[in-house]
Design brief:
By secondary structure, the chain is α/β, with parallel strands linked by helices. It has two domains: 77 residues, YebC, transcriptional regulation domain (Alpha-Beta Plaits), CATH 3.30.70.980; 152 residues, Vaccinia Virus protein VP39 (Rossmann fold), CATH 3.40.50. It has eight helices and 14 strands. Strands 10-9-8-11-12-14-13 form a seven-stranded mixed beta sheet, with helices on both faces. Strands 2-3-1-4 form a four-stranded antiparallel beta sheet. Strands 5-6-7 form a three-stranded mixed beta sheet, covered by helices on one side. α7 links the parallel β11 and β12. α4 packs parallel to α5 and α7 packs parallel to α8.
Length: 278
Amino acid sequence: MNYLEFTFTLEDQEMQDILIALLAEMGFDTFDETGHLLLAYTDADAFDEARTEALNTLCAQLNCSYRYTTMADKNWNEEWEKQFQPVIIENRCIIRAPFHQADDAYEQEIIIAPRMAFGTGHHASTYLMVQAMMDMDLREKTICDAGTGTGVLAILAAKLGATDILALDNNEWAYNNALDNLALNDVLEVVDMQLAEPPLIQDKKFDVILANINRSVILEYMELFRHALNDRGTLLLSGILTADMPLITRAAASAGLQEVRNLTREDWSCVEYTIHAD
């Protein structure tokens, strides 16, 4: 699989988080912020004329420019491994690659093979999800990780004691990467990894649903998530710009959910909901 590497230059650096969120909705799945430049990556085969037109319109609106090159899969993996650094969340959980030294100084350790898939923990949205999960009692719980990416959240749920975990992703690259990572962390037996969209869960029930995705997908599936929760279930959402939280709050209230807590980091929000008590 070949990927396209886009280099974006913005006139207003404060718009970078907004650009990342909008690019994620267009199918870009990995980002790297390098000084005043933003690098973004997407599957070359999926970048058609319609997406090119949409990208040009977006850049005109945000006053930014871009250039792109094609990157071969093998070359990308080699380069990514060179740059991958461990992520430490609140001094409680470390996310590292297999070639990093093991460190037992943290409560939890997650091993990720660094490849091109969203959710390594470097982005604020994944960081916030891990931070929130470390304070939750997931022992013996049924979990759905909707949009699992590299599998970080499903892996953490297993390490925190969950015994029945369904992980979903509609990206074949992420799906294969997640399977490798589940094996690296010895949790394949408790995680059912599926190449699928969220509607797969419409006839299922979970104690906890994890969704680190993006605003548009969250809004589309808010009702589905609500109805897939057990009576005292928890919905944990991330991938949301703090500026977009009013939209999420309204949609959650309309679905019969009430906010329990809201964590923020670098203009991103992670919010926990439970079913509203009648």
